[in-house]
Amino acid sequence: MRILHTSDWHLGRTLHGVDLLEHQAAFVDHLVSLVAERDVDVVVVAGDVYDRAVPSVPSVRLLGSALRRLSEHAVVVVTPGNHDSAVRLGFAAELMRPGLHVLASVEALDRPVVVADEHGPVAFYGLPYLDPDTVRHTLAPGVGAGAGADAGPGPAAERPPLPRSHEAVVAAAMDRVRTDLASRPGTRSVVVAHAFVSGGEASESERDIRVGGVDSVPSAVLDGVDYVALGHLHGAQRIGASRGERPVIRYSGSPVAFSFGELGHVKSTALVDLDGGGGATVELVPAPVPRRLAEVTDTLEHLLDGRHDELRDAWLRVHVTDPVHPERLYSRVKAHFPHALVVLHEPVGAVDAPALRLVTAETDPLEVAADFVAFASGGVATDAELAAVRHAYETARSAEESA
After folding, report:
1. Which CATH superfamily is domain 2-286 in?
2. Full DSSP string of 145-210
């Protein structure tokens, strides 16, 4: 069986103010073509299809179009991530067209979508993002689906909740998955989950999901299945077991970069071939690059003299090293590098920062302002700057006194 694993579309997200929806739509086109050309049987989307719980109308339209087009070629399985609202994403799950499944219910996470090929059935289990504070009662032993003989006496509300941790709730969810899988002899298995699994390399664009100071789940918690399709981390990577061991645990990564922390990422989609015995082989198919990310560090003179012009077509983070803050820094950089998104002044050889001193009601406000100018610009305040500060201060004081 051929499975296409993708995640973290974050429809509606911007990159330092740049609208990415056009580029995300191009990725959807790429995905639909890939599914058709490579005879994909099942597409799994492991969470964070939207960037916020209440998505914009264009984002909703793009997702609707994407799911319709993908489900014309393959079975589609979607789970919510920590950015999505599981309730909103899954509200019409029972009304979906055949072959399109949104697995958003915590209570039903051990009820898989079963797809068969010439080797037999494959069970796809959907684990939506499990917030410990929200689901630790729902997934407690003896509550809900799969409770079985462990239910014990008393109503569910009286039973103790799971510990307040990601490990506890994901482990409980996987216990339910393994219990159901044991009742399906000869069935291969795929878990589609949204979580931070230990050993994964994070970037600066994922939302912090720490609870009790811990945000990760040990990879051993996910044992007992053949392939784990993960979402949450934006870099494509394998976690845990080495080649040939099971389960194969992978993050597909996001299809486009959402921060300069992802500058070194090669964005891709995981094409997974699951053989008759449950062994998984993975091919990473590069995603289209809307515009490359780059960064450059130099003085303003060198930035503008042509030596870095190969970067003019890139989304750029610029570090300007002049010892004194240049005039009209941002506008001059933007005029030369039209796609510069971040311009930082990081002075090299600047004057020493003013010594820290206690500011009281008796401290001369002009001295405090002069210290700030030196700190912000990297150079001693000029006579013109001091005159401007003095004028502003005296005007504000005059207005206050006459109020």
Report:
1. Metallo-dependent phosphatases (3.60.21.10)
2. TT-GGGG-SS-GGGSPPPPSSHHHHHHHHHHHHHHHHHTSTT-EEEEEEE--BTT----TTSPP--
